[in-house]
Amino acid sequence: QVQLVESGGGLVQAGGSLRLSCAASGRPFSYYSMGWFRQAPGKEREFVAVINWNGGRTVYADSVKGRFTISRDNAKNTVWLQMNGLKPEDTAVYYCAYGYTGTYVYTPSVADFRSWGQGTQVTVSS
Prior knowledge:
Layout: E1 3-7, E2 10-13, E3 18-25, E4 34-39, E5 46-51, E6 58-60, E7 68-73, E8 78-83, E9 92-99, E10 113-116, E11 120-125
Parallel strand pairs: 2-11
Antiparallel strand pairs: 1-3, 3-8, 4-5, 4-9, 5-6, 7-8, 9-10, 9-11
């Protein structure tokens, strides 16, 4: 089983930036895709971004495209989500997730990930 620990959330004003980190341990990290999802109160968990095993392929939700950047360092077993131009509608608990495969050739969903972190709260004030 892989353990994932997110950090970097917080309270920020609209237009601001945050960088989320996710540290992985317990299973091989570098062979698998990593994703970020978010869940706002009363809503389902939704896809934000995914990065393939070597960082060569990234996919983003339309709502964050051009503002968020996902990256990884396999030597550090860490994946990041750089969030710029934050909006109040970005407010949610953000989760990182460990995939079943090295590269997704489609936009993955919650069911495509086998391990999840505990989440980190991001709150954007207007």
